[in-house]
Amino acid sequence: MPAPTTNSLPDSKTRILESARAELNSQGILGLRVSEVAKNADTSITLIYRYFTDRDGLLARVLGDMYDEFRLNFQNKVNQWLAITDEITIEQFVCLMPNPAEETKHARDFRLQVLATSLENPELHKRIKKITQETHEWMTSAIETSRHKLPEQDRNFDTRFLTVFMFNVMFVFYDLVDDKISADDYRAMLANQIRSSALISS
C-alpha cells in the first residue's frame, strides 16, 4: 500500500514531514535534530514520537519518501518518452539514463547517504529494498516491452546489463578524479557497452 500523500495527512503530521525535509536539506542526515523539526513545525517532540516512534522512524519516512520521489520522477520521464516514440535507437535510450556529467553532486551524495543510513535503520532499509525491487521490475518490463522499437541489429542486448548497471553505478568516482568524462562520451561508452552485452550473452 503506497504511503499517503502529505495532502491526506493530519495538518500536524504534514508540518512535521515538511519541517523534517527542510531540516535534512539544510543540515543533512547527521545534522537532523528532532527538536528543530518540532520547533519549525510548531509542534512537540512528543507528538513526533507518537507518529514516528523515534528519530530513526522519522528518518525512515522522510528519506524513504525523498528516495521514492527520485525513482518515480525517473520512471515517469522514461515512460512518457517511450509512450510517444515509435522507433528508438540505443543512443536515444541512454540519453534517458542518469549521467554523471549532468547530475549534481548533491543528488549523488544524497543517494549514498540514504543507502548508508539504511544499513543502520531497519525500517528505512525495508523501504529502500522495496523501492529498488519495484524499480528493477519496472525497468525490466520497460526494456522488454520496448525492445521491438529498436533497430533489429540492436535488439539482442542483455537486459541484465542495464539493470545491473543502473543499480551499481553511483558515480562516486566522478567526484574523486580530475579526468572527468563528458556527458557525450559517457553516453557513447554506455551505448557501446549495451551493444557489446549482446555478444557476451549469446
Automatic annotation (TrEMBL):
Keywords: DNA-binding. The keyword Protease does not apply. Residues 10-70 form the HTH tetR-type domain. One of its GO terms (molecular function) is DNA binding. Signal peptide: none annotated. The keyword DNA-binding applies. It holds the Pfam family TetR_N. This is Unannotated protein. It comes from freshwater metagenome. The lineage of its organism: unclassified sequences, metagenomes, ecological metagenomes.
